[in-house]
Design a protein that fits this description.
Layout lengths: L4 E13 L2 E12 L2 E13 L17 E7 L5 E2 L14 E2 L1 E4 L8 E2 L12 E4 L11 H19 L10 E9 L1
Parallel strand pairs: 1-10, 5-6
Antiparallel strand pairs: 1-2, 2-3, 3-9, 4-7, 4-10, 7-8
Length: about 170
Amino acid sequence: MAKDWELRITRAGEQPRKNRRRTIGRYEVFHDGVKVVGLSGAMAETKGPGDNKTAGNNRCVEAGTYGLFTQDGEKYVTIGYTANVNPAALKRPGLLLLPTGKRVGILIHPGRGFLSSIGCINPASKLGGADNDIDFIDSRKRVIAIIDDLKAFLGSAFPASNGKKIPNASVVIQ
C-alpha cells in the first residue's frame, strides 16, 4: 500500500540573462524516503527570494513543504491534457501546489526558453548556465513522468478528476 510520495527541490542559485533572472536547482522524487532512479533533473523557477505573502510578485514560492493537487485550469490540467506537443497547444500537463499563502496558481508545468514562469516550477534536463534554454518537449515529458509516477505509486488513491487534493503527496523546497 502506498505511503508517502515526495518531490524534493533543492535550490542552487540564480542565473541572470539580460534583464531576467531565474532560480535554478535540482529535483528528485522519493517513495517512502527512497529515491526513485530516473526521476530527477534540473528545476527552474522565477527569481528569488521566495515570497508567499504578496500576490502577483513575480518571485518564486518560499522554501517549505506544499501539498499537491490535480490542476483544473484553462491552460494546465493533471488529467486530460493534450497529446499535442506544440507548446501553444492547450491543455498542457501540470500539478498544483497548495497552500501558497497569497500566491495563486503555483504549478509544476513544462517550461521553454529561459523560463516559463512568474511563480511556477519548470522541470528540465540540465541548466548549466544562463545561456541554456529549457527544451519544451523534454520538460513536458518530465512533468508527465512525475504525474505518471504519482498515479502508479498511489494507485486507486490518486484522484479521478481535476481540482482534487492528491493524498500522501508533497513537494519540499529547500
